[in-house]
Structures are given as structure tokens and as C-alpha cells.
Specification:
Layout (H helix, E strand, L loop, with lengths): L8 E8 L8 E2 L5 H5 L11 E2 L5 E2 L4 H8 L3 E8 L7 H10 L10 H9 L9 E4 L15 E3 L2 H4 L4 H23 L1 H10 L4 H8 L2 H4 L10 H14 L6 E7 L7 H25 L6 E7 L18 E6 L6 E3 L20 E2 H12 L5 H4 L15
Length: about 375
């Protein structure tokens, strides 16, 4: 079914560090799991069962409830050939859709250009958090980066300039070693010009928002609250970007993984409730992704960088369920002798969202044609 209402909006949640997919969607019935992961495995009886094979981690209740309501598409086994285990390179590949070379444009920068080719609206793409994600970077494309929405619109002109400079400096320090000073300087010379205008547009947003939802004080909850505040203000934002860090748990996974999952999934649940209360959920789809999965065997305290991760598409329009195949956990199918083998290319997921939800031609954005899944029960295009 297709309905025509508001313009479709994409909200991206980046889980930085490499979410342990096997410890989020758990193949709890396979006894070998508990031999391979004596430290980080979760007792089967404490998990939240999906079916007779898979279960949610007990700290992912917020996501499991959305899943039970039919609002979550779980994409299993995301990856690509010759996957990188480097945080920087793996995330860069996810941001640019270019695993073979260092690219100059982020995939969401290209999306922003499609929506606003003349950069007329500095809020077409808004990122909450410090720095500017590479996914939103493209020459000639304006993306507004907001550290704190409550303070952003109240800054003086000098303070706004300092905020902009700080965010662009983070970008420059991150990417200059990889792509060279010339490219980064060219990009910085063309972007951020309208940030001050964007700050003026955001100044009144906090005062316009009221809600009965009480978000937690952690960064991802506050960022998703800011997404609702800007989205419901009707400023024309089509792409929102948020980040949740801390997933690189080589050690202390038993302490950190449950906390992070609770923060994330409760924030997503509150976010959807808030959108619905504002009659603003129908036009929103959420993509939750991470740069890679973790290895099959734990290391005695946590898990190391691996492959074969997962992603989640969330929304009222989603046809919930499991998509692609869960990577085989049989040792004969592992790659590198210790990693899950991916079962679907991450660009397939991007392509599905781009064409089916945003109404864009995916090929020039992801750099080719990839088999798509069909995660939507309805669209707005």
C-alpha cells in the first residue's frame, strides 16, 4: 500500500565500535555457543525468545517490544567481501560505500544533495553530536552539526563560529591522514557556510516542543529527543544522524554490553512513542548500523573485531521480521578461522531504503546495483 503524506525522513543511528551481533540476537539453542563464549554468553533461560532458534539479549527489551509489534526489520549477517577490521577504515567503508579505495563523498552527503541540490536549506541534513560524520560529507553539501540543541540556538555569533570551527576541525583531524589535506580543505571551504543561518532556524525549536516522554540522560536518548524536536518543528530536515559510542568491548563486555543495549533500545522505544504522540511517526524510518560484528570466540573478557554483523530498520511502516540469513556458526563456514561469514551486502540495505523509502536512485549513491530486501509494508513515495 502506498499513501502520500509528508516527505519521508531517514534517521540514522550509528553504533560506534562494533556491536556484538551474536550477543544481541543470540542463537541460544546451539550449545557450542556456550563453549566458544564462556565469558560473554548469556544463559538461554534469561534471553527474550523470538523463535526456537534466536533470542534477544535480555537488555534489548525496548527493541524486542518494537519487534513484537511488527515495527523492526532485523537484517542478519551484514558485511562485504574482504572486510576490514580497522575501526576507521571499516566505518569509512560504511560511510562512503567504497570498500576498495578511499572515496571523496559520503552516501548521505549524496542523498542530501539530491534533496537540496542548491544547498538552500542548511537543515536538510542535521547531525547531533561532536564533529561531522563522513557519511554526510560531500563537496558543496551543507550539513549542520549540533552538539547541544538547547544551547545551539542561544549562542552568540562568535560562539557559533567557534562551534562550527571545532566541528570542522574534528573532521579535518580525522580524515586528513586518509584522504589528504587538499581534499579535506576543499570540502571545508565549501561546507558550513550556512551553519549560522541554521543556528538561527534552530533557536526557537526547544521552546516549541512539549512531551510526556521522559528520556534518559544518556547521549543517545538525548540525541533522539533532539531529532523529535527538530522533526516536529517542520524545518525541512530529511536526514538525521545520531551516534552511540562504546561498543568496542575487547574487555568488560559483560558490564558494558547490557548497559549499552539498555540505553539504545530504551531510547529507540521512547523515540517512537514520542513521534507517535506528536503524530509524526508515519514519515520516519530509522536505520541502526555498526561498522562490523565481533569474532565468534570470546577472549576471556570481551570480544575482538570480526565480521558478519547486523542492522535494524525501525518504523511504523516497517514489515517486521528477520531478513537475510543468520550467519552460519558452524566452524567450517567461518572466515579467517574465527569470524562469521556475511550473508548480505550492506549496500543492499542502503539501496532498499534509498529506493523504497526515499524514492531515490540507489545506483549512483551506493556505486552499483545490489539485491534489495523488502522491509516496508507501506511507503510515502
Amino acid at each position: 500500500m502506498t499513501t502520500k503524506a509528508k516527505d519521508p525522513v531517514l534517521v540514522v543511528v550509528q553504533l560506534t565500535g562494533g556491536l556484538d551481533f551474536m550477543n544481541t540476537l543470540i542463537p541460544y539453542q546451539d550449545g557450542r555457543l556456550y563453549d566458544w563464549r564462556p565469558t560473554v554468553s548469556v544463559p538461554a533461560e534469561t534471553t527474550i525468545k523470538i523463535d526456537d532458534q534466536l533470542a534477544w539479549h535480555p537488555s534489548a527489551r525496548g527493541l524486542s517490544e518494537l519487534y513484537d509489534a511488527g515495527n523492526v526489520a532485523v537484517i542478519q549477517g551484514i558485511g562485504y567481501e574482504n572486510a576490514s577490521r580497522s575501526h576507521f577504515r571499516a566505518m569509512d567503508i560504511m560511510h562512503t560505500c567504497e570498500p576498495e579505495k578511499v572515496a571523496t563523498e559520503g552516501w548521505l552527503g549524496k542523498v542530501t544533495r539530491e534533496f537540496d541540490p542548491n544547498s538552500e536549506n542548511p537543515l536538510t541534513a542535521v547531525s547531533f553530536g561532536r564533529g561531522l560524520p563522513r557519511a554526510l560529507a560531500a563537496p558543496g553539501v551543507t550539513a549542520t552539526s549540533v552538539g547541544n540543541l538547547d544551547e545551539f540556538g542561544l549562542m552568540t555569533k562568535v560562539e557559533r563560529e567557534e562551534e562550527r570551527a571545532a566541528n570542522l576541525d574534528i573532521f579535518k583531524r580525522m580524515y586528513s591522514p586518509a584522504v589528504g589535506n587538499g581534499l579535506v580543505n576543499d570540502y571545508l571551504a565549501q561546507t558550513g557556510r550556512e551553519i549560522l543561518k541554521g543556528a538561527d532556524m534552530l533557536a526557537d525549536v526547544p521552546s516549541q516542543y512539549t512531551s510526556t516522554v521522559e528520556y534518559a540522560k544518556n547521549p543517545i536518548a538525548q540525541a533522539l529527543r533532539d531529532v523529535v524536536r527538530v522533526h516536529t518543528a517542520g524545518l525541512g530536515t530529511r536526514v538525521f544522524y545520531t551516534q552511540h559510542g562504546g561498543y568496542d568491548y575487547h574487555s568488560l563486555e559483560n558490564e558494558n554490553h547490557p548497559r549499552l543495549l539498555s540505553e539504545l533500545t530504551e531510547a529507540l522505544s521512547d523515540f517512537m512513542t514520542d513521534l507517535r504522540n506528536h503524530n509524526a511517526s508515519d514519515e520516519v524510518t530509522v536505520l541502526v548500523f555498526t561498522e562490523f560484528g565481533r569474532r565468534v570466540l570470546d577472549n576471556g573478557s570481551g570480544t575482538d573485531h570480526g565480521t558478519g554483523g547486523g542492522a535494524y530498520i525501525i518504523g511504523d511502516h516497517v514489515s517486521g521480521g528477520l531478513y537475510a540469513e543468520y550467519p552460519s556458526i558452524d566452524p567450517k563456514d567461518w572466515i579467517y578461522g574465527e569470524d562469521l561469514r556475511h550473508t548480505i551486502d550492506y549496500r543492499s540495505i542502503y539501496s532498499s531504503i534509498l529506493e523504497q523509502w526515499l524514492g531515490l536512485d540507489a545506483v549512483p549513491i551506493v556505486g552499483g546495483t545490489y539485491e534489495q530486501i523488502n522491509p516496508y509494508a507501506k511507503t510515502l513515495i
